[in-house]
Amino acid sequence: MRNAVNGNILTPGGWVSGAIGFGQRIEGVTGGAADPSANGGDYIIPGFIDLHVHGGGGRDVMEGGDAPGVIAAMHARHGTTSLLATTMTAPPHEIEAALKAIGAACAERRPGAARILGAHLEGPYINSGKLGAQPPFARAATLAEVRELGAHAPLRLITVAPEIEGHLRLVKELSEAGIRVQLGHTLGTYEDGVAALEHGAAGFTHLFNAMSALHHREPGMVGAALAHARYAELIPDLLHVHAGAIKVALRAIPNLYCVTDSTAASGMPDGEYMLGSQKVHKCIGGVRLPDGTLAGSTLTMDQALRNLVGLGLDLADASKRVSTFAADYLGELERGRLAPGCFADIVVLDRDLNIKAVYIEGELCDLNDA
Known about the structure:
Elements: E1 3-11, E2 14-22, E3 26-33, E4 43-46, E5 48-53, E6 55-56, E7 59-60, H1 67-76, E8 80-87, H2 92-107, E9 115-121, H3 143-150, E10 155-160, H4 167-176, E11 180-183, H5 190-198, E12 203-204, H6 220-228, E13 231-234, H7 243-252, E14 255-258, E15 271-275, E16 278-283, E17 286-288, E18 294-297, H8 301-310, H9 315-330, E19 346-349, E20 355-360, E21 363-364
Parallel strand pairs: 1-4, 5-8, 8-9, 9-10, 10-11, 11-12, 13-14
Antiparallel strand pairs: 1-2, 2-3, 4-19, 6-7, 15-16, 16-17, 17-18, 19-20, 20-21
């Protein structure tokens, strides 16, 4: 074993007090079962997996070029060991340029950066009446266009408004092709959501945000998620979603997992930044368009974990919701868990849940890297 870390290790079978040995992959865990709350030492948990990342460190995915690698490095310093680079609704040539840069970053991981597993295409296949902070370039999708975009980067996740004509058929086609389809930026009804799930849709994009709300006589897309979903992503910055609504979702959706929906403003001081083609302003922990609309977040996954624990989740449950469930959702079964043979994506936390060390595929990251 080339590396070893000692502490309270969260394994698939529970907490172990001992040592985890690893190279690029985990080679073994030694020790005995333990209660970490009654035991001193660091917490050793799976690296965080973020399936919705627009930016960070002052850079935006839609810039193309080296932006994806810079963004992945910034998030690595907050414990994210793998992520999906997420595009915005935009004209076709802008999306293609962003995907080319994402594809290059997927092919070769930058040292000290999170592994980019592929792209989350959040737009343009959404409802123009529920753009949220997306620019006004929404349009209906075709399988041919999706295939063309997929030639530039692995499309792992696509957000779709199911009520748009032709999209139910597309949901089925994409699902059969192995692409995860999420429902979001939608004015669809409860019935639209149920139909999309029956056609193969697997989740919901930033649950509660930019979708038809729950009403007791019109349950909306939120109702479809709460009644039927096994998976959904949620932004737990306590700004996008009230703590009470988060608790509702946690009770209703067994594999609810967390994302940051982070922007270029993440990890940066207050000021003006770009989100795709739009200017956004970071102030008092939030990111907004000039009209006040929330426009992504400044959240990092380590803070997401702390927020979940602050809501009352135990650390093992919170860890699954920032790592394991997202890995399972994508079918990445060699990530999101500390078990022999899995990638050595490891986060070491102190007793206050602050980052002490991050390993990505066995590489120790420099937490002070600018």
